[in-house]
Amino acid sequence: MPEKSIETPVRIIGSRELHQNLPSILKELESDKVRYVLTVHGKPRAVLIGAEPYLKLILNDNRSSEALIGLQLSALLGGDFDSVALDDLEKALDTTSR
After folding, report:
1. pLDDT tens-digit profile of 74-96?
2. Is 18 strand, coil or helix?
3. What CA–CA distance (Å, rounded) separates 55 from 45?
4. 96 torsion bin: left (phi>0), alpha (psi -120 to 50), beta (else)
5. How far apart are CA 72 and CA 76, in angstroms?
6. In terms of DSSP bridges, do strands 10-14 and 35-40 run parallel, antiparallel, or are they unpaired?
């Protein structure tokens, strides 16, 4: 089953787990609080988000949660946080807009 974290809505899943658990994953993606990072051979390849949550996200311009997910994805990719804009860090850490 996919790796779940209590502190974050981002769940890491391999392509095999995605294939085996697709119906339950699609059901979970209906929630606007769930994202999956799909990995292939342990490397992030895609971010999965449900269609309805995606529409809410782009229509409401809720960038703080996406900034946090972007930082988490950067960490998974071994990114350099020195290159992250201060505004993005502030959005990611802003708990009032979530």
Report:
1. 666 666 666 666 676 666 666 56
2. helix
3. 22
4. alpha
5. 6
6. parallel
